[in-house]
Structure formats: structure tokens, C-alpha cells
Design goal:
The structure is a single chain. This protein is α/β, with parallel strands linked by helices and about 375 residues long. The protein contains 17 helices and eight strands. Helix 11 links the parallel strand 7 and strand 8. About 0% of the residues have low confidence.
Length: about 375
């Protein structure tokens, strides 16, 4: 089973939108998916999924009113089950450490191909620990200054949390960090690569453990709510900051344009990928799902810059899908608004189908190569 935590540095950037529709896309691909609402205290993922709020959820499980198996509920969507969060239970947003660990143990036993964790916004320690359940969690952000800054700060806090989890409490490395914490402003200004060099001098064994975990830690970025291909440049700023200040490399899963159809879908109590599967927004999410599926058979190593170049190309393609030849066609009267919309939808659908075929061929090729090596 692959665990996919989905987080954001701030609210309102479309984290639950991506989580819900990604689950549906993976389910359509034949994968067994469980999606859990871990935005504890503000749980509303059931609304994005278009489901009634279940009577049993994480709150009733933590309070002992339900067994864990009882809070995994079927949905109206193929291969997708749902775990609600129970926002109305007081104190659920600040669960105890023992409760968090018990949830983690249960999550790791879930019978599914994918477990998607829709996390709350911010950098609470529980959120960071849930995010670190996978080396390839997804961070969702938007092109606004505050959203990109908060996205970076979330990743920075995740790296610090990973560092603390790598050091034993009685180790010299842990004691070194504790001394630095007394001056939190100095600690926050330190670059992670320089900090690790300092820790190597006092506790090389602990530093080696952390460096090994950092090599495996490769979060994935989704830039949502863009209006223009130039907005995609904001992803590079996050990438550069993470690389320079955190020693962290990101994979870019893609960009998603703003789409007013999402509000219509939400009011209709349907996920956008179900309400309008051929919309630009839905197609972008299907692309993200294809990349998640491709990662099953193909493990990309080395420089991840190519994923940012791919995202740039996708941004241009989607933008073209929205605007290409609109003025010429409408000005000449060669096509009506309705006909133009249907043409774009049809082209987007065909592109998505071709991408799926390409990914399938890549998977088959990877398996054939692996079998050849065994022979």
C-alpha cells in the first residue's frame, strides 16, 4: 500500500479538491483507494466528495465509540472508501500523542492500494508526523505570495521534524538542537546543509542517519489555482528555496488552473472529475493521477528538474486549451461558443487518453526490462 498525505501551508488552496478527485481518478484506474479526512476540527471532505457525513468517523474511533473497521465507509465511486473526520467533536483538532500513534498503526494496516490522507493546513506536529508517513507526500500551494511562502515553510518544518525524529533524545545531536532552540530566531535562520555540517562535528553517526532519510524524502508539489502560464514560475521559487536552504529536492506533479466550474460542481454535490470529467481542471487532476500511477513501476532517480519542465509544458498546453484561436474563430463566425467548448473538451480528452496509453507502455517496458535483467 502507498500512503499519500496531502498537505498545505495554508487553507484555501484546494488541498481537499485534489485529495478527493485524486482518489476518484485512482479508483477509476482500478486501484483500491481509502481517503481519510485528517483536517481534524474542520472536517468537510465529505462535502467535496458529495457524500453524506457518516455517523462514525475518526472522532468516534478515538473516543472508543467505534472500531476502526467501522469508520471505513463505501462511497458512490468505484473502488473508493472514505474515513470521515468528525469536526463536531470538541478537542479533536489537538489529539494526544498516543491517539496519533494509534491512528498511524491503524492506517498502516488498511487494506488498499492507496491511502490518501487529507491533512489540515498548518504545521502542527501531528500534521507533520502524518505527512512524514510517506517520503513522497504531496504539498499543494497556489501562486500567491502568502501561499508559496507558507508552502515553503511547511516543508521547512517537515525537514526539522524529520531531523528531530532522526536523533535519539540522549544523543549529542539532539542536545545540540535543544541548545539552538533556546534561541529560536537563530535556529530558523540556519540553512539545513550548514546545520548538518555542524552536527557532523559533534555526532557524525546521527548526522549520517538524517542524511540517509533526507535522500529518501522527496515531497511532490502541485501548484493550484493558476490563471496564466507565467504563474507556473512560482514553483521554481519554491524549488530553489528548498534546494538552497533545506537541501531538499522536490518533484513537480503539475499545475491546475482556476475553474469556475468547480463551484458549480460543489453546489451540485459532485466532485469536478465526476461532474465535468473533460474540464481543464479535471484533466489536470487526471494527469496528476497518471504520474502517481507511473511511480508504481518506474522509480525516477537523480535530477528532478525535468518534472518542472514537464509542468511548464502542461501549463502552456492547458492555457492553449482555454484560449487557442478563440478570437479568430469567434470573429469569423466559423464556430459558436458551444461548439468551441465541445471541441476543446474533446481534444483534452483525447490528449489524456494518449498520455494513459504512453504510461501503460512505459510500465510494460519497465517490467520487460526488469525481467530481462533477471534472466
Amino acid at each position: 500500500m502507498q500512503i499519500i498525505p496531502v498537505a498545505s501551508g495554508k487553507g484555501g488552496v484546494g488541498k481537499s479538491l485534489l485529495s478527493a478527485n485524486l482518489a476518484i481518478a485512482l479508483g477509476k484506474a482500478g486501484k483500491k483507494v481509502v481517503i481519510a479526512d485528517l483536517d481534524l476540527g474542520a472536517s468537510n471532505l465529505h462535502l467535496v466528495l458529495g457524500q453524506q457525513a457518516p455517523k462514525a468517523g475518526i472522532g468516534t474511533y478515538i473516543s472508543g465509540q467505534s472500531k476502526f473497521s467501522e469508520i471505513i465507509c463505501p462511497t458512490d465511486y468505484q473502488n473508493v472508501s472514505f474515513i470521515a473526520g468528525d469536526a463536531e467533536i470538541p478537542g479533536l483538532s489537538s489529539i494526544k500523542n498516543s491517539q496519533k500513534n494509534e491512528l498511524i498503526r491503524e492506517f498502516q494496516k488498511v487494506d488498499a492500494d492507496y491511502l490518501i490522507l487529507d491533512l489540515g493546513a498548518g504545521t502542527h506536529l501531528s500534521i507533520l508526523d502524518f505527512f512524514l508517513l510517506s517520503p513522497q507526500g504531496i504539498i499543494v500551494t497556489a501562486p500567491t505570495v502568502t501561499a508559496t511562502l507558507n508552502g515553503y515553510l511547511f516543508l521547512k518544518n517537515a525537514v526539522f521534524r524529520l531531523m528531530y525524529n532522526s536523533f535519539k533524545k540522549n544523543s549529542k545531536a539532539y542536545e545540540y538542537l535543544e541548545r539552538l532552540k533556546q534561541d529560536s530566531s537563530s535556529l530558523q535562520k540556519l540553512y539545513i546543509p550548514k546545520l548538518i555540517e555542524a552536527i557532523k562535528e559533534v555526532d557524525p553517526a546521527s548526522a549520517e542517519i538524517f542524511e540517509h532519510r533526507m535522500k529518501q524524502f522527496c515531497p511532490r508539489l502541485v501548484l493550484n489555482m493558476i490563471d496564466d502560464p507565467k504563474d507556473a514560475d512560482k514553483a521554481y521559487k519554491i524549488k530553489r528555496s528548498c534546494s538552497e536552504y533545506l537541501g531538499l529536492e522536490l518533484e513537480h506533479l503539475g499545475v491546475i488552473y482556476k475553474d469556475p466550474m468547480q463551484d458549480v460542481a460543489l453546489s451540485s454535490r459532485l466532485p469536478i472529475s465526476v461532474y465535468k470529467p473533460q474540464s481543464v481542471l479535471s484533466q489536470a487532476i487526471f494527469r496528476v493521477a497518471d504520474k502517481v500511477l507511473s511511480a508504481e513501476a518506474i522509480h525516477f532517480e537523480g535530477d528532478l528538474t525535468a518534472t518542472f519542465a514537464t509542468a511548464d509544458s502542461e501549463a502552456e498546453t492547458d492555457y492553449a486549451a482555454r484560449l487557442s484561436y478563440v478570437e479568430d474563430l469567434m470573429g469569423s463566425g466559423a464556430i459558436t461558443v458551444g461548439e468551441l467548448g465541445e471541441t476543446i473538451k474533446s481534444q483534452q480528452y483525447e490528449i489524456t487518453q494518449l498520455r494513459k496509453e504512453i504510461n501503460l507502455l512505459r510500465t510494460k517496458l519497465s517490467k520487460a526490462v526488469a525481467q530481462g535483467f533477471r534472466l
